[in-house]
Amino acid sequence: MSSQLLAVDEAIKRLQALLPAPPASHPIALDQAAGRVLAKTVFAPAPLPSWDNSAMDGYALRASDLGEDGGTLTLAGRISAGHASTETLQPGRCLRIFTGAPMPPGADTVVPQESCQAEQNQVTFPACKLGANVRLAGEELMVGDQAIAAGTRLGPQHLGLLASLGVGSVTVYRALRVGLLSTGDELVALGQPRLPGQIYNSNHYALTALLQGWGIEVIDLGHIADSLADCKTALSQGAEQCDVLLSSGGVSVGEEDHLKHAVAALGSLDLWRLAIQPGKPFAFGYVQQTPWLGLPGNPVSALITALIVARPYLLGAQGRQVQPPLQLSLSANFNWQKNNPRRQYLRAQVQQQGHELVVSPHPQQSSAMLAPACWANGLAIIEPNQRIQRGQPVGFVSFSELMT
After folding, report:
1. 70 in the Ramachandran plot: left (φ > 0), alpha (ψ -120 to 50) or beta?
2. What's the CA gap between 33 and 154, in Å, rounded?
3. Which of 64, 179, 180, 398 could pair covalently with 238 via S-S, beta carbons 3.0-4.6 A apart?
């Protein structure tokens, strides 16, 4: 293994080149599709809107019936949403119309009701612009236009669009099955007594929640003691039922880090020392034919490497389109003079300071402390060997970008 640290972006690139085929796909009813990954692009089966309609409550008319300063027209009836007029609007007349109602034949403009004066069957209008307040048929989507691309994780906005097109079912990928396991004799399950030197297994709960937030089906492979035989048994069983294996701990250089030896014995192993802080030890390999990602054991190191390095791989393995998380450039509310060859991800909070958004890191940045991550709403990014003065721009990625 090379002693040179691997850049974070290079590690992500290598993992993307090793993506497995996505899970099998199947049709699913639209009301069951929230959070699923679309396997087949949906094209508009009909124009949207299907017909010209009013964008607001008002009066439908011919713009040519009004002069430059407006004019008065005779009210000839009304059209409400869900109803349509088949009669052509005659010159010199207007129709009361409501939002979403189809435009009557002959009408080309809608004037908002608050701009008009109605008295008995006469309506006085200000000057108006031809075509104002009319939603034209197909102005959102024409027949055959791409509505939603394959690889999209379906959210409320996508389901709403599909429903408006009359699409009642979609083809999605089966949820990715990720086998999650933890290693280390120091770990104790919740509810069990702790001996001196033991800690509760926080990584299991943090990583389970993270994976579920990404739409992944988590297969709990349990906690493995520091034993080569136990590691090989758990990995072999997990490889038979999971698409990807994910572990925390057991990938460092300690004598009791048996997990990496078990992976090497069952398949292949590639250990990377990443230029990242926290989270330098990281591993990738295969157990039989099943990909395996090995995260470090410290709670924050496991969390950060999962968010930054493992996330793009796991999203891609679902069949999702993978875009880099949106990184903002905001004003630093701190000084950072430490010369570090690794890219640092500081648990930080964006705060309003006057009319400006500023980034403030938590004073505690230990890789064992999760409380600062609970205080933070994202990560400040310090590039290798970068020094920051208060007021200078600093990169920031919100947790909301990384946890969906």
Report:
1. left
2. 7
3. 179
Report whether 247 contacts 181 (CB < 8 A).
Answer: yes
pLDDT score of 254 more than 80: no
Structural element, H or E, at residue 394: strand 393-398
Burial of 381 (0-12, 13-18, 19+ CB in 10 A): buried
Amino acid at 66: L
How many whole angstroms separate alpha carbon 148 and alpha carbon 146? 6
Predicted confidence (pLDDT) per residue in 278-294, tens digit:
999 999 999 999 999 99
**pLDDT score for 3:** 60
Stretch (H or E) spanning 348: strand 343-353
| 209-232 confidence digits (pLDDT tens) | 999 999 999 999 998 888 889 999
User: What's the Cα-to-Cα distance from 74 to each of 81, 120, 154, 207, rounded to whole Å?
Assistant: 21, 9, 48, 68
Please give the distance of CA 47 from its chain centroid, rounded to a whole number.
28
Query: What's the pLDDT band for 249 if we cut at 50, 70, 90?
Result: confident
Tokens 């027209």 sit on residue: 73
Strand blocks (E) in 126-214: 134-135, 146-148, 169-173, 177-183, 187-188, 199-200
pTM value surpassing 0.85: yes
Nearest to 122 by CA among 78, 85, 72: 72
Tokens of 225: 């003691």
Degrees to nearest 5, angle at CA 118 with 115 and 119: 155
Secondary structure E strands in 202-342: 217-224, 244-248, 267-273, 276-277, 281-287, 290-295, 328-332
For residue 303, the one-letter residue type is L
